[in-house]
Amino acid sequence: MYSAANMDSAGTIPPFAAPDGGAVDLLIIAGEHSGDQHAAKLVGELQSLRPGLKVAAIGGPALRQAGAQLLFDLTEFSVVGFVEVLRHMGQFKSLLRHSENWIATHKPRSVLFVDYPGFNLRLADRLFKASLSRKSGGNIGLYYYISPQIWAWKAGRRFKMARLLDGMGVIFPFELKSYADTTLPVRFVGHPFVSEGLPSNLSLDPSGPILLLPGSRAQAVARIFPAMLDAFSVMLEQLPGERALALYPDPRIRALLEDILSGRPELKDRVELRPAGEGAKAKACLISSGTMSLNCALAGLPGAICYRAHPLTYLMGRMFIKVPHLGIANLLLPDAPPYREYIQGEARPEAIAADLVEAIDKPERTAASKVAAEQLRTVLGGNSDTPSPARWLIDSAKL
Hints:
Number of strands: 15
Shape: globular
Largest sheet: 7 strands, parallel
Oligomer: single chain
Order of helices and strands: EHEHEHHEHEHEHEEEHEHEEEHEHHEHHH
Number of domains: 2
Number of helices: 15
């Protein structure tokens, strides 16, 4: 398996290894930590339903632990934003080239793209143009799990996906309408936090710490975590006995959090760092947007969303993103959003600190969070006709 550690001083990425043990039934490509985890759950169920299925992955450690042969750790290159992507364009082009070459050489029966549209849709297009995919005359089926957020921006991509892909599994029921005017077969497969029984390792505890979740992408964490610490410091002026707990997805992010904390010696004994996999009990949360914000809402944690991006990325987003909220839970419950959002210039320490104090001190905030959690489970759970992601893929790809 190759990762950032295998690159030379110029950042060159070597070709991927050949598959172990012959032909590959399924290649999974997941570039986000959350996508890696969701795909790993899918692989676990696939192996129980189809023992002996050969799975390779360009993904992350969770897929490797689930039994897939990991060709490259793509989660190490998880970036978001216009400016951040430009900085890594050379490496992404190299990864695209190696991925296409590996698929052309080893010809897996199917490819499953998981989220990460900036990379995955480009690769799907290359496979189509190379006549490798089923829809372009080849033999490789192309499937997508966890749709790009076309309901937020770049809605026109749905027609390109209909041309390239053989099937789509979505995790939000409202996404079905987004593809209604295309020929793409789309199924709601339930949200992994609910329908697959993925345990939430977060829970509400009135005696617990304040949970800080700055995210999993280094560029974003470098901007968001200092803002969270600023807000926590202001909150301590009113509630001097409080503690904070920051969760991190991998050692690379832990090192970044430690570096940021090293410049805040007054918080050395107030902020604990812990691997995200160990979970936490907390009284309130301060979270960035993303998967963990939905996890917190499902756990019934009161709190707020804090987000900062590169200024140019933020301006680009304001121009093209057409949704009223950043947090997924807020989008799913628009009439009573669980979290106030403090974005870019609005992420002022005093405002966020006041919100956290209210979340801790006012019982009605906790009560509202519990109601929101139940509403989210109802929305995301599906019904008896909703297939699991693995069942959907087996039926669609004939695995």
